[in-house]
Amino acid sequence: MMTCGMYDKELEVAVRVVHLACSLCQRVQETLVYRRADQVMSKEDDSPVTIADWSVQATVCWILSDSFKDQKVSIVAEEDVQTLSKADSADLLRSVTNTVNECLQEAPKYGLQKPKKTLEASEILKAISQCNSTGGPTGRHWILDPVDGTLGFVRGDQYAVALSLIQEGKVVLGVLGCPNYPMKKEWLNHQYSLSMSLLSTPASDMREGGCVMYAQRGSGKAWMQPLKNGGMKLQWLQSAKEIQVSSIDDPALATFCEPVEIANSNHSFAAGVAHSMGLKKQPLRVHSMVKYAAIARGDAEIFMKFARAGYKEKIWDHAAGVVIVEEAGGVVTDAGGRPLDFSKGVYLEGLDRGIVACSGATLHEKLIGAVYASWDSSNL
Ligand SMILES: Nc1ncnc2c1ncn2[C@@H]1O[C@H](COP(=O)(O)OS(=O)(=O)O)[C@@H](OP(=O)(O)O)[C@H]1O
Ligand SMILES: [Mg+2]
Ligand SMILES: [Mg+2]
Ligand SMILES: [Mg+2]
């Protein structure tokens, strides 16, 4: 038996809906790489958002609400309906509505219920805006990043669908869908590009590619499955294999990963820390929570993110990745060595400088020491 925890039912629904959401993203990404300009919108903070971000949020909201009808489902998620409800956004809303309805039609293939009738645009808006919970220290809250690494997504590169559950302020399960991160390791080392692989690989082969990872808190185990495009009605656990962090603890042999964008993490500070702790390899720059996935799977040993001072990290950018890395045997803390606190609402309040994840305690101690030593000489 691959799960035997308190949240088996929640985990099963979460894994199924993440598979479903990944298939939606794959379809949208294929069209996006050819028609980028008019399909990528900007939010108020200038970050990108697409049909996929809203559509996944509406889809996951509908499935969770339907699957847990007896509960008042609380969802903390990234997107809101501001852009979508503007007067000149009618086409956009129509695209989202169609995308969600098409996706939900496929739900039975994934062992989930589909709606009895086609959802109206107003119901889609309602579903998206219903994900406006702020989490907190009590009760049960789903945490969703419908598309994490939207920039990677629009570039035809790495991105993730991240769903997790917090209970009394603790992350109790996490699921990460990584449609462009194949089961085999070597793929991550090349920069993944959908547009390139579409030219060189038959689309069907490429669609076999991705994986979904998941873990339940306290199980001491984390799992990976191939992404199922044709559905997964029965025996959803069967194709899962256990994953574990890397056993490398020599910094000279370790690989570290970090965000692609300099705006999202201070690369030069990370390089200083890397040098100071004796890392020798070039950093692996990857969009999205695929970085946590790489640590959990043993494809890399260290993840560092040092956002600019004043930026507040959001829980949906980390929750699923953290529980999967920890259950796979890794360590995740802030740059001061303290565990991340998911109980304070939407933000990781009180975060000390940045976030680090390591495959084990030896590398983690060295990393925290190197941050401490490098801090004075930096001006983050
Ligand atoms: N200024 C700034 N500083 C730090 N972090 C920020 C910043 N702006 C955005 N974000 C969040 O970063 C999420 C993407 O992180 P990544 O590690 O994938 O970044 S990168 O694309 O590889 O550069 C990204 O998640 P998504 O919006 O889901 O893509 C953001 O939540
Ligand atoms: Mg994100
Ligand atoms: Mg996102
Ligand atoms: Mg975003």
Intertermini distance: 47 Å
> In what range is the share of β-strand residues?
15-25%
Instruction: Report the count of strand segments.
Output: 14
Ranges where pLDDT stays below 50 over 5 or more residues in a row are 194-207
Molecular shape:
globular
Helix/strand structural class = alpha+beta
Describe the structure.
The protein is an alpha+beta fold. The protein is built from 13 helices and 14 strands. It has a seven-stranded mixed beta sheet with strand order 3-4-5-6-7-8-9, with helices on both faces. Helix 1 packs across helix 4 (90-105). The longest helix is centred in the first third of the chain and has 25 residues, at 8-32. The protein is globular and about 60 Å long. It starts with 7 loop residues before the first helix and ends in a 5-residue tail after the last helix. Bound molecules: 3'-phosphate-adenosine-5'-phosphate sulfate and magnesium ion (MG) (3 copies). One magnesium ion is lined by residues 145, 148, 317. It catalyses: adenosine 3',5'-bisphosphate + H2O = AMP + phosphate; 3'-phosphoadenylyl sulfate + H2O = adenosine 5'-phosphosulfate + phosphate. InterPro entries: DPNP, Inositol_monoP_metal-BS, Inositol_monoP_superfamily, Inositol_monophosphatase-like, Inositol_monophosphatase_CS. Mg(2+) binds at residues 78, 145, 148, 317. Pfam families: Inositol_P (PF00459).
